[in-house]
Design a protein that fits this description.
Length: 87
């Protein structure tokens, strides 16, 4: 059953455009709207996450980050670690 679904998903994109003979025209308006919509959703999510982190951790997080980022190497390691956790 899983094999049939996988095979269908692999073949379907190739068979759907087989009858199209005219050159493909890009829809720039749709492309730009999706780009700006995605960017807006990303920025909204970052704002919400930033507010939630400030509310939960507050000044304690500021103190911990201050002690963890005393030099460049520890700052890089802290940034990479926090990015990995948040992602």
């Amino acid at each position: 059953m899983k094999f049939c679904i996988l095979l269908t998903l692999l073949i379907l994109p190739f068979s759907s455009n087989a009858s199209i003979t005219e050159p493909y025209q890009l829809d720039y308006f749709s492309m730009l709207m999706r780009l700006f919509g995605g960017l807006a959703m990303f920025l909204y999510g970052m704002e919400k996450m930033s507010d939630a982190l400030k509310r939960t951790a507050g000044s304690r997080m500021k103190q911990v980050l201050g002690t963890l980022t005393t030099n460049r190497m520890s700052s890089v390691a802290t940034g990479a670690g926090l990015t990995a956790v948040i992602q």
